[in-house]
């Protein structure tokens, strides 16, 4: 296999994930494959040294871990291409919200190896929080390969698949809440006469302290 990880779809969440992976230095870009329908996206990743594929089939054949990062509306249309190329060693890391492990097994066969993941955009600064659930077919060695990739830019917590929807406000959507809260507090701080940068440093440090105290 020419790549360790291959990404089908390279939108915002994959860009954030790979930005964090790059910072870690654990994986070289040329060992990570990219397939995206946008030529501009592909060109941007190619310029950064990533291995860009012209088809899903070639990417799946090349990588042990395949990150499925397309929307639920699109995922149906790529299953046949994936099925034609997968091997017994292929591990799927699914970032597609709401798509169950059972659904993948119905499309690709009951023996396929699938790990569902709820990621966070904070991976881009090496502080990702990844909630994952794995199929019974995923052996410990398979899981370690995915865990190693994700933990290069954050923490990984394994949870029951029954909680994959419930975890969204805890990690998946939580950054949006924090961003909004921060903007509201900074706006009020500036209104009261504080310099915005000073208020931001004070508030961020306080948030870090609260996390340590919990």
Automatic annotation (TrEMBL):
<keyword id="KW-0641">Proline biosynthesis</keyword>
<comment type="similarity">
    <text>Belongs to the pyrroline-5-carboxylate reductase family.</text>
</comment>
<dbReference type="InterPro" id="IPR008927">
    <property type="entry name" value="6-PGluconate_DH-like_C_sf"/>
</dbReference>
<dbReference type="Pfam" id="PF14748">
    <property type="entry name" value="P5CR_dimer"/>
</dbReference>
<dbReference type="InterPro" id="IPR028939">
    <property type="entry name" value="P5C_Rdtase_cat_N"/>
</dbReference>
<dbReference type="GO" id="GO:0004735">
    <property type="term" value="F:pyrroline-5-carboxylate reductase activity"/>
</dbReference>
<dbReference type="Pfam" id="PF03807">
    <property type="entry name" value="F420_oxidored"/>
</dbReference>
<feature type="domain" description="Pyrroline-5-carboxylate reductase catalytic N-terminal">
    <location>
        <begin position="5"/>
        <end position="98"/>
    </location>
</feature>
<dbReference type="InterPro" id="IPR029036">
    <property type="entry name" value="P5CR_dimer"/>
</dbReference>
<dbReference type="InterPro" id="IPR036291">
    <property type="entry name" value="NAD(P)-bd_dom_sf"/>
</dbReference>
<feature type="domain" description="Pyrroline-5-carboxylate reductase dimerisation">
    <location>
        <begin position="161"/>
        <end position="211"/>
    </location>
</feature>
<keyword id="KW-0028">Amino-acid biosynthesis</keyword>
<keyword id="KW-0560">Oxidoreductase</keyword>
<protein>
    <submittedName>
        <fullName>Pyrroline-5-carboxylate reductase</fullName>
        <ecNumber>1.5.1.2</ecNumber>
    </submittedName>
</protein>
